[in-house]
Structures are given as structure tokens and as C-alpha cells.
Design a protein that fits this description.
Blueprint lengths: L1 H9 L25 E4 L6 E4 L3 H24 L2 H5 L13 H17 L1 H11 L1 H22 L13 H28 L8 H25 L9 H18 L1 H7 L15 H8 L3 H7 L5 H6 L15 H25 L2 E2 L2 H33 L9 H13 L1 H10 L6 H26 L17 H4 L4 H19 L2 H18 L2 H14 L12 E2 L1
């Protein structure tokens, strides 16, 4: 019994030089920089790892992610406003709210579907080179073309270049985004020893997701332009410079710091991608709600008045980023350690259920705000402050820590070592590809609710036309979808299935005999006090 307890908490958190004498020789490389070793007995390949991957290489990988997310969200949360003419009334493609939302969802769907392209490239080039191809070959050219569409002078007075925008927004930019999303998170996680540092991987994914939102927070705070055209182009140019900086930063891990060259790991095929896909499907209900922030939430917020004259709907994502940072810090430094002290470990499905619950509360609050918008306008023609949307954004942000970051982690840990990139692509497809594909269809089915009753069009960008539509009905559908996600993830049979896959993936990395040997060596030396130990854990 004691051996089992030690095994659970000692073997998976090796990070000090003083711990090295206590692990079996087969896990020691005797390399000063990367002293931990894992050997693929099938191929004979040797893989070396640093004791503290975060300081050795992962920090630089997170910086690349932060810069890319800064660029991405600077565009993402202003696209709907630009496409409908809110940002630039005199120069825009003239899309309706439904068409703009469908366009953004289509772009997001491509971005969350094409990670499989990134996984394919990584399988042949290695993670690092595939990241460079996605960045320099697709991502930067895509945002460069989108930048060109914001300059009327480049079109010589002709009509808005919708075709050029479509190529950039629906092909190049999302394809590059998809490649990066599939690979950067895996490249970072592969710097940790899959056996001796497995507990550090969960913490890494919380930090990874917090990094995403730091980039989003800065991007949304400084990138969105005011509603006049002359400031739009410089903003896009700033995003290009930032992405170029990300490309330069990306050189550091591979050339000087990376603990695991090209991000390869030992061969294993005992956990199929189908099993990973079935687990990742559980995140889809929450992801459908999350995908509304750059679309339906923007449509709702566009008819609300700015707060203090500076906080508009384009800035509201700062509440998501802020809540992710706060909730991520709270869960990793307090909640999870406190539960661990009590012998409790939240299961993956229960984390998903918590995320969906927070998403449901976000949709419920959006319905309350929808009622207040109509009530204020019908009473005296006034508009309510956009800050009333903040609780919905905050709830979605907290839900991301429990749902989305957990999905990233389980896709990595519950997949075969050579399937990591494809497992990540599968997870990203379930987070963004499937939900946005679903939303495109849902927008079309529900389009009558987005039609104003003054002239029968879908122009609801002004308060007088918006209040004649029935957007609240759409939020009600989203609430039901969130509740469905809660119910599915709370089913005992679902929890047992996911837990069994996680167990199979862990068992595939090393046999019981080897793991027990580590613990027995520690006990023989009488040095257990050097390692954190917990009581028997209960998975809930």
C-alpha cells in the first residue's frame, strides 16, 4: 500500500539534482544539462530531458505562443465589427450580422480543422520545422493580405476586394493558425519526461492556457482601433510586426534550448486516436458556447453603449483573459493542491462538467442582458452599458480553465507517444472545428431570429433594429446545449471510460516493475522526505 502511495507522487515529479541518485540507472543519462533518460526499447532511440524544463526551454516556447496569440486575438475580436462596417463605415465588405458571423465561424472552423495539416508536417519535418512552415508559409502571408484589404488606395477606388479577403481570412491565416495550434502546445509538453515528470505536464497546460490569455489580454487592449478607417491599417501592421517577432523568438528553443530535438518520443500504438477523439468530443458543448464570443456576443454588445467612453465591445475579451489568468492561478496554486491534500483528484469529465456549468451560467446571464437591452430601449430609447456583458465573459473564461485547458492536457497524456501531434489536432478540431461547423448551420437555421422587423433585413447593428429581432431565442438554444454537456460529462459510464483510457496511456509508457523499483530504491535509501507524498487519492 505504501509503495503505491509513493509511486503515485514520487515517480512523476523528478525535478531536483538531489533526486537523481534515487532513480534507477536506466532513467539517468549522466548529461549535465539533460540528466533524465527514456529509451525506446523497440527502436533503441534515447531521449534526454532537463530537470526543470520550464526554465530550460519551455519558457521560450510559451513566449512564442504569447506573441502569436497577441496577433490572433487582435484581429479575431474586431473582424465582425469590420465586416459589418462598424469600425469603418466607408470601407468594408458590407456584410450583414449573420453573414459576418458565418464568415468568422468559417475561418475559425478552418483554423481548428487544419491542425491535422500541422500534425502531418510534424510527422515528416519534426515539430520545430513544421512550426516555422506554418508561421512563415501561411500565417504571416495571411495577415499581410488582410492588412492590404484595409487600404482603399490600393484598390484604386474599386469595390472592396472581397476575394482577397476570403483568401486571407478563410485559407492562409486559419491554415497557419491551425498548424501552430496543433504543434506549439505539444512541443512544450514533450520537453517533460513522460514518466518522471508526468505531474508537471498538467501544470504546464494550465500555464500554457494562461499564456494564451496574456497574449489575448494585451492584443485586445492595444490592437482594436477606434471607429475610423485611418487607424485600422497601422493596427494590422503592428500585428504583422508582432508575428515576425514570434518567428524570431521561435528560433531559440530548437537551436539552443530545446530539451528534446524535433519533439519525438518513443513508439507506442496501444492508445488509438479514435479513443482520444471520443474523449475530446466531450468538450464540444462548452466549445459551442465559447465560439459565441467573437460572433453573437459581439452582435449583442455592438448595440450597447461604451463604458467611460473607452471600453467598447471590441475590448470585452479582456474580461475573458483576466478571468482565465485569475482562475488559472487559483486552481493551480490553491484548488488542486488543497484537493490533493484531502486525497481528492478531480476527474477529467468532472472538470468538463464544471466548465459546461460555467458556460451555462454565461448564457443565462446573456439572456438577462438581452432582456435589459429591450427593456431600456422600449422604455426611453436608451442603451445599457456594455459592461453588463462582463459576467458572461468572466464565466466563459473560468470555464476555459476547467474545460479547454483540461482537454489540451488529456489529449496529450491519453494518447500514444508518436500520436501526440495528431491527438492535439484531434482535440483542437473538437474545440473549434466541430463547434464552429455546428454554429454555421445553427446560424442559418436560426437566421429568422436575427432579422429585424422594420424592413425585413438582417441588419441589426443599430439598437432600433436590434430590438425588433429575437436574438434571445438563440441564447436559449445555447443554454440548452450547455446543459446537455453537463449531463453527458456527469454520467458515471463516461467518467469510467475516460479514466480507463488515461490508465492505458500511462501504463503504456512503462511497466509496473520498473515504476516500483524507483520507489523501493528511495525507501532503501531512507530518503522519502525529499519528495512530496500524499495519502491515497480518490478520483471524483
Amino acid at each position: 500500500g505504501d509503495v503505491g502511495i509513493h509511486q503515485q507522487n514520487v515517480v512523476n515529479h523528478i525535478h531536483l539534482a538531489s533526486q537523481l541518485p534515487l532513480i534507477p540507472e536506466e532513467y539517468r543519462s549522466h548529461d549535465d544539462q539533460r540528466p533524465l533518460l527514456l529509451v525506446d526499447h523497440e527502436t533503441g532511440d534515447r531521449f534526454l530531458y532537463a530537470l526543470q524544463p520550464m526554465k530550460h526551454s519551455v519558457f521560450f516556447i510559451l513566449i512564442v505562443e504569447l506573441l502569436e496569440r497577441f496577433t490572433f486575438y487582435g484581429y479575431y475580436y474586431t473582424l465582425t465589427l469590420f465586416l459589418t462596417g462598424v469600425l469603418s463605415p466607408d470601407w468594408n465588405p458590407g456584410f450583414t450580422a449573420v453573414k459576418a458571423s458565418s464568415y468568422v465561424s468559417a475561418s475559425t472552423m478552418v483554423a481548428y480543422t487544419t491542425p491535422f495539416v500541422g500534425a502531418f508536417l510534424a510527422d515528416r519535418l519534426g515539430d520545430y520545422k513544421a512550426i516555422l512552415v506554418g508561421l512563415m508559409g501561411f500565417y504571416i502571408p495571411g495577415i499581410f493580405l488582410m492588412t492590404l484589404t484595409t487600404f482603399p488606395v490600393l484598390c484604386y477606388g474599386r469595390a472592396f476586394p472581397t476575394t482577397l479577403l476570403a483568401i486571407a481570412m478563410l485559407v492562409l491565416w486559419p491554415l497557419g493558425t491551425g498548424c501552430l495550434k496543433a504543434l506549439i502546445n505539444v512541443f512544450g509538453a514533450k520537453q517533460f519526461h513522460p514518466l518522471l515528470q508526468s505531474s508537471m505536464i498538467e501544470s504546464y497546460y494550465v500555464q500554457f492556457y494562461m499564456t494564451i490569455n496574456v497574449g489575448a489580454l494585451v492584443g485586445v487592449r492595444y490592437v482594436p482601433s477606434p471607429p475610423n478607417h485611418k487607424d485600422t491599417s497601422p493596427v494590422a501592421t503592428t500585428a504583422i510586426r508582432t508575428t515576425t517577432a514570434a518567428a524570431a523568438a521561435g528560433e531559440t528553443p530548437s537551436t539552443t534550448r530545446t530539451a528534446l530535438q524535433l519533439g519525438q518520443q518513443p513508439n507506442n500504438k496501444t492508445v488509438s486516436l479514435l479513443s482520444t477523439f471520443r474523449i475530446c468530443l466531450l468538450i464540444v458543448p462548452f466549445a459551442i458556447g465559447y465560439s459565441q464570443m467573437p460572433t453573437t456576443f459581439i452582435v449583442q454588445g455592438a448595440v450597447m453603449k461604451s463604458a467611460f467612453g473607452i471600453i467598447s465591445v471590441a475590448n470585452m475579451n479582456v474580461f475573458v483573459a483576466g478571468s482565465v489568468l485569475f482562475c488559472g492561478a487559483w486552481t493551480s496554486s490553491y484548488l488542486y493542491p488543497t484537493l490533493a491534500e484531502k486525497g481528492v483528484k478531480l476527474s477529467t469529465t468532472h472538470k468538463f462538467a464544471i466548465g459546461s456549468t460555467l458556460g451555462a451560467l454565461a448564457m443565462l446571464w446573456a439572456l438577462v442582458v438581452e432582456h435589459w437591452i429591450h427593456q431600456a430601449y422600449l422604455t426611453d430609447g436608451s442603451q445599457i452599458s456594455v459592461l453588463w456583458q462582463a459576467p458572461s465573459y468572466i464565466l466563459i473564461g473560468c470555464g476555459e480553465i476547467f474545460a479547454t485547458s483540461s482537454a489540451y492536457a488529456v489529449a496529450f497524456t491519453a494518447s500514444g507517444p508518436r500520436n501526440k501531434a495528431f491527438a492535439s489536432a484531434t482535440n483542437i478540431f473538437c474545440i473549434g472545428g466541430l463547434p464552429n461547423l455546428f454554429c454555421i448551420g445553427l446560424y442559418q437555421v436560426c437566421s429568422p431570429w436575427f432579422r429585424n422587423h422594420l424592413d425585413g433585413t438582417t441588419d441589426i447593428s443599430h439598437i432600433d433594429t436590434y430590438t425588433t429581432a429575437h436574438v434571445g431565442n438563440y441564447f436559449s438554444i445555447l443554454l440548452l446545449i450547455m446543459m446537455l454537456g453537463i449531463g453527458i460529462n456527469l454520467r458515471p459510464s463516461v467518467r469510467i471510460f475516460v479514466h480507463s483510457i488515461e490508465e492505458d496511456a500511462t501504463a503504456a509508457l512503462g511497466d509496473q516493475k520498473t515504476t516500483s523499483t524507483v520507489v523501493l530504491d528511495m525507501e532503501r535509501e531512507g530518503r522519502e522526505e525529499m519528495f512530496p507524498m500524499l495519502d491515497n487519492k480518490t478520483v471524483v
